[in-house]
Request: fold
Amino acid sequence: MFQIRYAVCFAITGLAALLSGCNPAPVVVVQDKDGTTSPISRPGVSSLKGEYEMNVVCDTNPELRIKKVTVTDSKTIFNLVFKSESTSWIRTAAPGQQTAFYIADPDSRAEYKLLNVEGIAMEPSQTSLEEGESVTFKLTFERIPDSLSTFHLIEGKTNSLSQDGMPTRSWTFMNVKLK
Reply:
């Protein structure tokens, strides 16, 4: 029902704009996990497009931080830094893997897939680190909708929860806010 109303509204708005001599703003539509579609850009919703400097500590590992999130017309890019407190190694899963990172909408449960990984080894390889050494890496995802200013960044899927109710994943950032 929402899709039909929105399409009719957009068609009427577009027709009015064309008749008045201006072009309507394009609306990008994404398909959610459950098969429903939702617009990324809607009238009355301000655009998330831009760069967001931050210093968000990972909920499951204080060595990892989100330093910047960039939202473009077509993707969402996370710049992360891992600073090793001891000699260790890190890695992440490749896009498309069950254990790959994804962005989750805490309200609708829509998920936005990992598209690319740069600067860190992907399974089964490892990026080795000495104590105190840092590695900066990028994770590129599908574009999040403008209405999603709070989200979760989660590594992999699991049904297990720890004693404190947190998902048992290597790296999880809950309720990250862009605005």
Remarks:
- Residues 2-19 form the longest helix (18 residues).
- The chain has two domains: 2-39, 50-177.
- Confidence is low (pLDDT under 50) at residues 1-39.
